[in-house]
Amino acid sequence: MAVYTDIDDATLAEALEAYDLGRPVAFKGIAEGVENSNFMLETETGRFILTLFEKRVRREDLPFFMGMMGHLAHKGFPAPRPVAARDGEVIRTIAGRPAVICTFLNGMSPRRPDVAQCRILGAGLARFHAALSDFEGVRTNNLSLSAWPTLFAGRSGEADRLSKGLADHISSDLRALQDAWPADLPRGAIHADLFPDNAFFLGGELSGVIDFYFACTDFLAYDIAVCLNAWAFEPRGEYNITRGRALLAGYESLRPLTPAERIALPVLARGAALRFFLTRLVDWAETPADALVRPHNPMDYAERLGFHRQAEGPADYGLNIS
Amino acid sequence: MAVYTDIDDATLAEALEAYDLGRPVAFKGIAEGVENSNFMLETETGRFILTLFEKRVRREDLPFFMGMMGHLAHKGFPAPRPVAARDGEVIRTIAGRPAVICTFLNGMSPRRPDVAQCRILGAGLARFHAALSDFEGVRTNNLSLSAWPTLFAGRSGEADRLSKGLADHISSDLRALQDAWPADLPRGAIHADLFPDNAFFLGGELSGVIDFYFACTDFLAYDIAVCLNAWAFEPRGEYNITRGRALLAGYESLRPLTPAERIALPVLARGAALRFFLTRLVDWAETPADALVRPHNPMDYAERLGFHRQAEGPADYGLNIS
Do A30 and B32 touch (CB under 8 A)? Predict the structure, then answer.
């Protein structure tokens, strides 16, 4: 939540000369996005978000992210639409960094989503997947099954410092997931990071989905599993089945899950929790105590893993096998 | 440049129930203001800045600041207009902190002001003073002459660490200013911190003046002296007389300085530079190396003091004694 690279008025004016957006009217750095610098930009023609990509996002991945956002916006899904410069390019260089300008989306992110929002989010995710069914871009999910052992390597001590005995639990999660991970399920472009702070609501509707920088090609149901972890847990790893059921019902109101997806849901949910636990563990261990941005505490996801380990089947998530 | 206190969607919705602004449409923390948390708020009725006051601003000073801003806006000067809640109160409590909602001003701050902007700023400052000529609020300038020895007490070592011999120079500045500070000049409400990042320009006009949290009652010409320091210096303490002359000419196009103000200008400029040097020295010395916000380097103002010490009269600033 910071502006890492500033853009002064002269740099902005020069950058905008490449676009057909008119002159700037207002420009402010905003506290949004953990990895990038984001600015609210208003010009004579509308309101936009200008993003500078800092080191974590690879430039070669940007065409996939921008293609996905453009595809969604073109289909009427409320994703930011990347704006092309006069030369047709969407990705440019501003202040020495890869940069894009996208349309601004209204709405507010829920701090603590309610049941109605979970249902709307579930239906929105199904619309998201449907809108992308003919999207041709492909990007490997480099934070999935094969990456997890590498992320955990050498971090047992850190895990046990967080909670005694946790390293053994994580090792058994890794083994269980290698054994049980589904070989094949319906696949496509997924968001893979659709947390409440990446969703905007306005007037009881989903008005925006942002932050596509973990998007990739993977099982559609894995996206649902990420959302269940992010939207349907209370503190200390307590699953709120009312919210989980609403999210799943919202999704299935547009695309009913296949029998294989239903059976796989618990293992996907456990895998999604492990993914966020592990990346948070790495950030936790590697961030100096005096860093500008404080990392998320990995324990939130260690506690969710506790729920997933004891889940006996899809019914425990509010999904009925009919 | 940060959001120190976050406001979630539920807290915002509850806070807005006290106002007649309609429902929120967009809400984002912005990287503006060093001392406070600022948010861009759009509602069904318009666009606003919501400010939470953190520890540096004293709650008892807020009525003066808000009164001044409201007075200016009422006179047609482009200052943010504080919005009263339905109960008539401008200052409320949101997220446990004193909070105000003001109108949003368009425009961009210049990183490196040009000559035209300096002239416009000078004229804008004269309009600012004129608009406040019937403002009745009073607030002592607690960062003026009598405060400076206290700010410097015990900091000789820190000054000499910045630049060998600097402490002696500062001591002689303090003595010279105690001797030469004017006893009486035209007084009124002044901004006292009108740096380029507190001024917005749009379409060749001054479209906004923000950040009133050092405003006070003092010599009007001291406000000009602050602006000369902030708008008309190059790096390494080199005075840009073209910009300084433009700023002064802009001011005098609306309010010619009195003979006493002209004569006092060099000592006021030296005092203004000392004020910013000293507060930056204190911040520099008191901010831990691992702090979230890095303080300004006091040397920028030590270098300006070097110019002021050798100035022989108002002509050195581009002001002619006619």
Answer: no
> CA of A271, closest CA in chain B: separation in Å?
29
Among the partner-chain residues A26, A30, A202, the one whose CB lies closest to the CB of B31 is: A30
Q: What residue ranges do the domains of chain A occupy?
A: 9-103, 115-317
Alpha-carbon distance values, A118 to A89, A209, B304 (Å): 36, 14, 58
B160-202, pLDDT tens digit by residue?
Answer: 999 999 999 999 999 999 999 999 999 999 999 999 999 999 9
Residues 203-242 of A with CB under 8 A from B: 203
Rounded to an integer, what distance in angstroms lies between the CA atom of residue B273 and that of residue B194?
13
> How confident is the model over A148-157, as pLDDT tens digits?
999 999 999 9
Coil vs helix vs strand at A15: helix
CA distances from B30 to A3, A266, B94, B179 (A): 9, 39, 17, 44
CATH top-level class for A9-103? alpha beta
Contacts of B30 in chain A (CB under 8 A): 28-31, 40
ipTM confidence: 0.88
**% pLDDT > 70, chain B:** 96
Residue B3 touches partner A, C-beta closer than 8 Å? yes
Of A196, A191, A198, the C-alpha closest to A143 is: A191
Q: Which residues of chain A have pLDDT under 50?
A: 1
User: How sure is the predictor about B1, in pLDDT bands with cuts at 50, 70 and 90?
Assistant: very low
Query: pTM higher than 0.95 for the full model?
Result: no
Gap from B126 CA to chain A (nearest CA, Å)? 25
Per-residue pLDDT, averaged over B101-112, amounts to 97
Say if A2 is an interface residue toward chain B (CB within 8 Å). Answer: yes
Query: How far A12 CA sits from the closest chain B CA (Å)?
Result: 10
Does B34 reach chain A within 8 Å, measured CB to CB?
no
Say if A5 is an interface residue toward chain B (CB within 8 Å): no
- C-beta of residue B283 within 8 angstroms of C-beta of residue B239: no
Integer angstrom CA distances of residue B158 from A151, A166, B284: 45, 48, 9
What homologous superfamily does CATH list for A115-317? Aminoglycoside phosphotransferase (APH), C-terminal lobe (3.90.1200.10)
B29 near A CB under 8 A = yes
